[in-house]
Give the backbone structure.
Amino acid sequence: MNSMNKILSTVILLGFILLCGCNTQPSPIRSGELWPDNNGEHINAHGGGVMYHDGTYYWFGENKCDTTSSAMVGVMCYSSQNLTDWKNEGVALAVEDNDSSDITRGCILERPKVVYNAKTGKFVMWMHIDSYNYSKAATGVAVSDSPTGGFKYLHSLRPYGEESRDMTLFKDGDGKAYHVYSAKGNSTLYIHLLSDDYLEHTETYKAVFPGKFREAPAIFKRQDKYYMITSGCSGWDPNEAEYAIADSMLGEWTAMGNPCVGENADRTFGGQSTHVITVDPENDKYIAMFDKWNKLDLINSRYIWLPVQFHSADSITIEWKDEWSLNDL
Ligand code: GAL
């Protein structure tokens, strides 16, 4: 190869490397905007949560398909390697065309969350199951061998007879999992230890914030501290978030105030908490997920994803960003 050819091939190689480099830049996250999936359609996974399993993120959430709260399709699943580009994996748990089923088409099926049980090798989904006027106040359980589908619905129940509405799941580092739900007419949050297979409640639970009417719980752990973000109870309308910290899931929870700062922080930037994604705990990388409900057109609800920022004395803040990327975490 003569020297001219060598220079030319080096330039081409450098250009190629630069191009590849550019392609690995994470896509921006734009809270409150439409978020297209791999088919160019707005992601339909509301009140959801993200589970990481074997190198892939799975986003589960409520399929909203009209202006009402009714579940007409079920729980959707999307997968991603990078948390920004999501592939529609279809319906993970489908509603049933059977009037006597708890998940009959048109029921209330909200806030589905999935955790993997390493002992049984099953993916376990818990969700809020209700009647159209929210008087049933129950929780439902489903299991699957695969994260993307074929969830089999087991049953709905009230934990030891107690009401259960807005909820989340939290799986701790020791493999224990907890069902956290608004109980007693939404006045009190219950943190309930699940059985080893994650399919039932045990007798161990803790009632927190009695009389404070908190809902939409989202839990994460950073170093040795547990954090819980909640909303107040105002239906689809936004209100002020609050967070609390504890040394253990069943320990004392201390309310720390509103984590949101800046304009519109007293209304959670128009959103309501649903989950916090632990991206890289060693490096304090966590993403707070909120739903920006459009109560007159629920399918057109949006997502608000913002970084959690950590400060001294275990305090956190969440500030609005029009656009950011995972590189900014
Ligand atoms: C909210 C709750 C949502 C949904 C809504 C219905 O308080 O967080 O998940 O249940 O009420 O009005």
